[in-house]
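User: As part of a screening pipeline, I want to sanity-check one entry by hand. Below is the sequence and the SMILES for zinc ion. Please return the complex as structure tokens so I can compare it with the automated output.
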Amino acid sequence: MKKLWLKIGVLGLLGMSCAKNKCAECHYDAPSGEVEMGTYCGDELKNLEDLGTYTDSLGTTYVVHCGEH
Ligand SMILES: [Zn+2]
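Assistant: Here is the complex for your manual check:
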């Protein structure tokens, strides 16, 4: 039983490190349509998803989407 829990723990860790390094293509929704932002991975992706917005040079904020909607 103890071994089983150990196995679950290891699998959980692997799953977490996998998610941490995941990559996704991001875009934001401008009035003229979707604008591709390129591919973001790991912490960069997490930060962008946490922020959830992109602000352009004119100070306009758009909603960011990453990966599948
Ligand atoms: Zn979108």
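Points to compare against the pipeline: The beta strands are 23-30, 33-41, 53-55, 61-66. Residues 32 and 69 are 19 Å apart (CA to CA).
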